[in-house]
Amino acid sequence: QNMTTVSITVVGASGDLAKKKIFPALFALYYEDFLPEHFTVFGYARSELTNEELRNMISKTLTCRIDKRENCSDKMEQFLQRCFYCSGQYDLEEDFKKLDEKLKQKETGRFPNRLFYLSIPSNIFVDVVRCASHCASSPIGWTRVIVEKPFGRDSESSRELTASLKQYLAEDQIFRIDHYLGKELVENLSVLRFSNLVFEPLWSRQYIRNVQLIFSEDFGTEGRGGYFDSYGIIRDIMQNHLLQILALFAMETPVSLDAEDIRNEKVKVLRSMRALEVDDVVIGQYKGHSKGGKSYPSYTDDPTVPSNSITPTFAAAAMFIDNARWDGVPFLVKAGKALHYKGAEIRVQFRHVPGNLYRRNFGTDLDKNTNELVIRVQPNEAIYLKINNKVPGLGMRLDRSNLNLLYAAKYQSEIPDAYERLLLDAIAGERRLFIRSDELDAAWALFTPLLRELEEKHIAPELYPYGSRGPVGAHYLAAKHNVRKYTKA
Ligand code: BG6
């Protein structure tokens, strides 16, 4: 492999994402010996910092994931010695020439490869890519660029962005990151389905009644209102994170585990999706209140959010895949901020057993007692299956129990952060977990008409109290599609 030297330049090095996710992920990879022998990390941003100042800034967010691991502080020091800083404007080629000089000085091994991580707003992607490709791309090795969403706001702007990037980069140099694809349980989805006989044959309309994909945060947009207000929850979470999970969940069996085979199948699912109807969508926005002596803000209390904003902080949509496998199965996709809990999960409700012998033990509603498979993506990663079981003892009473796989109990090793897996894949040139441009197009094609309709008609979100279960409308939507409420097993 020509992985012998890699320089990783984090453009936008002083931003939140860089500090909280990218540098810590790089350090974790270094700690675990996953980085190539010759690597350097460069921070690039506008502010004037010395290498030492950058190192101080980075060191504040480095952790060893588990405290008291061996040599943690030595390893941190060694890692920081590989970090350097270059200040410059995002649109000045001469500043990228300076970066190129600095990169060259540090590239000691053979075949220097260069990875750029654009941790900056998307309106400056093209400037950076132009300057970097003209002045700082690797002369003999590969040059790759990781870009973070938002990739545009709708079909048109996304296509424009792709076309502009492609003036300077080939598609195989662009790594569009969706960090949900790097999460352990999302990656496990295919393993669970395709390597278990008890699941694989059941994965269709014949046995599955509905699927829920849920993203819930128990905090608002505090501190990010400016960004959030021009995107809203549909663009921030649904169009990417949840839709990607849906595509992985519902795709046909790929020819192989190769990136292109998997992404071919994902695109097919996305392109088979039915246009979204406004009637099948509920939007909400959180409002403040006081509870137990504590007061919770409204979304519009944020000074960077206009006081009359109708940007949704919650959305639920019933989606359908019009193909032979999923015909008529509702996929209820829900995402919200400032709700009652923090978590992301996939819930699969199965149909009832035809002619169930124990029908009378369940009372009148058989549907209330069907199996449910829950994949808890985070926190407390777990997979559990709700089954019906006889309560031990004389007589015949049934109840619902869980077959339970709790990661913390079963696996002692800690779960790597999504960014670690994705950075490692980008360095290795593995594209399986990155979004191809046709996938992106298909995702926007699905949401653009809905977003346009919501915006043109100024459809106001339903208000829901901060920390609640979200708008009541979402519960009606679930009921309309026959989605059973959660029952604690
Ligand atoms: C980001 C969104 O992509 O994902 C944020 O922009 C959201 O709004 C975040 O908070 C959630 O990521 P995670 O990994 O903390 O669930």
Show the helix and strand layout.
Layout: E1 5-11, H1 16-31, E2 38-45, H2 51-59, H3 72-81, E3 83-87, H4 93-106, E4 112-118, H5 125-135, E5 143-148, H6 155-166, E6 174-177, H7 184-194, E7 208-216, H8 225-229, H9 232-250, H10 259-271, E8 281-287, E9 289-291, E10 294-296, E11 314-319, E12 331-336, E13 343-350, E14 372-378, E15 382-390, E16 398-406, H11 407-410, H12 418-428, E17 434-435, H13 437-456, E18 462-465, H14 472-480
Parallel strand pairs: 1-2, 1-4, 2-3, 4-5, 5-6, 7-12, 8-18
Antiparallel strand pairs: 6-17, 7-13, 8-11, 9-10, 11-12, 13-14, 14-15, 15-16
Helix pairs in contact: 1-12, 4-5, 6-13, 9-10, 9-13, 10-13
Bound molecules: 6-O-phosphono-beta-D-glucopyranose.
